[in-house]
Design goal:
Rossmann fold, 2 domains, seven-stranded mixed β-sheet, alpha/beta
């Protein structure tokens, strides 16, 4: 099996791209091995299915966030050096999280991302499985204009400019609320969370990542948000920042009969990841 050749040297392109080609040899299939079938037709069918499944597993194994970065990055070149720099920094900070999310999502297909930004994570999840139907929302028109016009995606990945406090959340097997709730006032936080709980399908999971106000390192989180919103202006804010306490999410999960897991997402800030499942 040969993996990566199509990314390094795509069809109908003259330029060879940076990347890795991996080769894997499967166990030999002997001509007298009748476990594959007793005639040419049955053998062809069973061996073909075997190769396709083995390649799918090989592809999934090789295409982690480190591998897919280059594929994602090519969607953002020539859109300004600041965005390219930001994309590299963001990916290095998030790549382990992206792999973690993908493993938990598994075979779930219907995904909603509320607060998608430029869409880096959504492209990663899209490339891991192009059958996933991903709806990504952000209130920043400029970010959505860039995300919606990336060149390497199909119709299963859609970006929308919308205020999530006023937008209906589609029925979803997976919902992301990453670094978004603290931009909303307290009433809007409750409203958005409840819409998400109502839209989450049985067996679905909800990712909520945010800084929590009761963490000892919360001062560092507030400082990074100050840099992000005021000095570098990567994120727009309409209200004062409102960080919730850990107990708030646990109470929300209890009211909606959701199971909850908590993961610490940073050694330097108060960021926590809450994984809620129905």
């Amino acid at each position: 099996m040969i993996h990566g050749a199509g990314d390094v040297s795509p069809k109908n392109e003259m330029m060879v791209k940076d990347g890795t080609i991996n080769v894997k040899a499967l166990p030999r299939i002997f001509a007298n091995d009748l476990s594959w079938g007793n005639d040419y037709r049955s053998r062809q069918k069973s061996i073909s299915q075997y190769f396709k499944e083995q390649y799918r597993l090989f592809k999934d194994e090789r295409e982690d966030a480190d591998y897919l970065w280059q594929k994602v990055y090519y969607n953002y070149i020539f859109k300004g050096p600041v965005l390219e720099w930001y994309g590299r920094i963001k990916w290095n900070l998030e790549k382990k999280n992206y792999d973690f999310y993908n493993n938990l999502i598994g075979q779930r297909i219907l995904i909603t991302d509320l607060g998608c930004g430029y869409g880096f994570m959504d492209l990663f999840l899209h490339y891991k499985n192009r059958e996933r139907k991903i709806s990504a929302f952000d209130y920043d028109d400029d970010k959505i204009a860039i995300a919606a016009n990336v060149w390497n995606k199909n119709a299963n990945l859609q970006f929308f400019a919308a205020d999530i406090t006023k937008t209906e959340v589609p029925s979803s097997e997976v919902i992301f609320l990453n670094d978004v709730l603290h931009y909303l006032n307290i009433d809007s936080q409750e409203k958005v969370l409840q819409k998400c709980a109502d839209a989450l399908m049985p067996g679905g999971i909800m990712f909520i990542r945010d800084g929590v106000a009761d963490d000892i390192k919360h001062r560092n989180t507030k400082f990074t948000e100050l840099l992000s919103t005021k000095f570098f202006s990567f994120n727009k804010k309409m209200n004062d920042l409102n960080f919730f306490k850990t107990e708030y999410i646990y109470q929300f999960a209890k009211r909606n009969n959701l199971k909850i897991e908590e993961h610490k997402h940073s050694n330097n800030t108060s960021n926590r990841l809450f994984v809620l499942s129905k």
